[in-house]
Amino acid sequence: MTRPNLVLLTVDALRADHLSARGYDRPTTPEIDRFAEANLDYTQAYAVSTQTREAAPPIVTGRWPEAFAANGYRQLDDPLPSRLREAGYRTGAFHSNPFLSRAYGYDQGFEAFFDDLYLGSNRLLALAQKALEKYVFDRGEYYARAPEVNERALSWIDSGDDEPFFCWNHYMDVHGPYHPPAERFADRSLSASESESLFRRSWNAPETLTDEQRTLLADAYDDELRCLDAEIGVFLDALDDRDLLSESLVVLTADHGELLGEDGLFSHPRRLREELLHVPLFVSTPEGATATFESPVSTLDVAPTLAESVGLSRNAMAGTSLLDDGVPRRVDPDRCVFASVAVERDQGVRRFAVRTAESSLRQERATETGELLAETQDGSDDDYDSLRTVLDEFVADRLGQLDGETPRVEVGSEIKSRLESLGYR
Fold first, then answer.
1. What is the distance between the alpha carbons of residues 191 and 213, in angstroms, rounded to a whole number?
2. In CA terms, which of 35, 161, 311, 337 is 20 to 30 Å from 274?
3. Start and end of every Sulfatase N-terminal domain (predicted)?
């Protein structure tokens, strides 16, 4: 049997309920809708965290966020890309999120790694990058946009021979600051400076925003999504034109969602809300399977799905493969999915959540003692005891992984500056 190509398309900060495929009242995602209708659609997919450094790495490793927190948020040893490369796959990654850069070890296992951030120790290149970053920031370009990511990924794909490949594109377009290249839903466009100013205020002092400014931010987010959707369609069509789509397992998902004024908050603060955890998840198989699943699944399921589809063992992966020899597995309607995140500016507290198809339970816990500091339930009170039991077990396992001092990774001023421009603190 010919081994399939593996294509992983992840979107930073894409909330599920703003896709027209999820019933949103704006036509934000016609291309993604088309992809969803023809393939496997998991309508109740949930992220494992709400911050990229804890939410994105589990997608490509199948490991819980605490494993990365305990490692200073660096990549772990023997990640899936390394195993795929050892198995004869070409491996390429294309993005511009600082938390997924070489500085944190995420080039491990990739023969081609474009992160648009890291030029090494060459002083002339570093100086040139500083000048370039000032230029692009002044123009409102805080990351490589989808057309550039697509171009680099397709160029790399075209440079290969008959070897199967693993291609990971991580799109930043709907991540703030929102400065869409075209407007469809907004009444007016935002200048680069206005976009950055509104974005900074939205996570520093959201209470100072007017109703008009809140609407501008939400409209700009939707405009970014519509533009990104078109580029995702371009990439998928390009694979199809090369006769590669039918030979590939394609996964499209997001690392986490986004708040657009709910509870007066914006961006993706360290909360475990539905808007931050509910993400899209679509899978296209070479066999052309089509189905819709409405039971809970997790972004932690992506890595074992990719690994098992090419005959690799799970090793230390958590999660569940969504496929069995290319055939969709039944999703357990009673399954519990989990999420966690460190609390803002306080490494001594973590938030944890469990949810089923009907209910959810959220807690704050002291990381050293496990003491319960706060708790919130949504759904039927009849589910509380069972949710509390499974969440207690999950918390104990995860806090056990954080025993000892967490190492810190020192990164350069350029990456720190880029992180701050994207709202990371």
1. 13
2. 35
3. 4-311
